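Morning. Coffee machine broken again, so started the prediction first thing and wrote up yesterday's gels while waiting. Chain of 434 residues, entered below exactly as on the submission form.
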Amino acid sequence: MKKTAYLSFLLPALSSSNIYAQTEHCPNIVLIMADDFGYECIGANGGEYQTPNINRLAEEGIRFENCHSNPLSTPSRVQLMTGKYNVRNYISFGELDRKETTFANLLKKAGYTTCIAGKWQLGKEKDSPHHFGFDQACLWQHTQKAVDAQGNDTRYTYPVMDINGESFEFSEKDFGPDIACNYIIDFIRQNKEKPFFVYYPMMLTHCPFVPTPDSENESRQRSATYKGNAVHFPDMVKYTDKLVGRIVDEINRLSLRENTLIIFTGDNGTDKPIVTMLNGKPYPGGKGKTLDSGTHVPLIVSAPEGLKNTVNTQLIDFTDFLPTLCEAAHIPLPTDKELDGKSFYPQLKGDTTHAREWIYCWYAPRKVYDTQAAVFARNKQYKLYRTGEFYDIQTDFDEKHPIPQSQMSEEQKKVAKALKAVIDNYEPLAKLKK
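Came back before lunch.
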């Protein structure tokens, strides 16, 4: 495995597309997604951590209070990138079906120059990122395993990264998240004269919980993935915020902010060892659970000519990102694909007329069998599981007290019936998964 400590020479200049003229008036797009980073991790949402850069992004845009992912990483990433519910196209953990079309495929086809850096976990084929629409890629967990021969995690200390499909092992002086961030900044600098799309699925704040380069007791040792003292988690959140700030500051420095759509979110709930104070109350991490603590993620969007310092309470689903990016880039949605997403781009300018009324989830991340799946539909207040349990999630956050039909109000019965219709609509697809 090759070694290097400097990356700029690894990022080749890209030739101008012959369809550049079609996109010259379209916004640049930067989509940042933190790993295992729930709604409660952002100060602007009422969390206890230091996130001044993300807070500032909220002040300069819209803070969404009702964005929901899937409870785990690969299911969320597949849903985000394809605009489809997992019941349609999820095949296995750590893999994205190569027959699928991603938002990067669509943006690249329309003339955007595209880049991904951070965590991959969507297929080990050397050409996977390029196949799914990315011109340039700097990724952890691409062709290489997530751990070394001793079973220690390789994303932070002595990071192992693939640069456009070629593997590099870095020194103890390098921090994996810095490598990905530097790569993105170099990409933006080199492509500032033409429309670009950056997808930054961050490695932070996934365990192991390690000191960052800014921590007082920084360590240069690898540790097993599911070990590490959670005392370091606040430092990891702080460093996440720092990297977001570096990218936004570079966009500002290059005078690109007025034509750049910036989106920040998280892929699923915070890891279970973490308990955060949210608005003065303990909020346990819910990664892997279908509770709100497992699916409720931050969403902050700063858009050219969009609303500023605004709070949006409408439901947003991870399937909604692909159609939103397409609308922002003036790209028609594919007519031959079964998409489930609903663009929230109009909401960036205040139009909530066509906001979604429900969210659906089919969740079987490691045993992809319908009999193993947790399936539900929900609105802002109520959640109905395919198994029949019905919850008022505003008053029963931990879903310990299902409401039997005999005790439902007429309004609750009406809601339960509507949510059951949503689940029933997807059942023909669910039954195909055995």
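The two ends are 40 Å apart (CA to CA). Going to sketch it on the whiteboard this afternoon.
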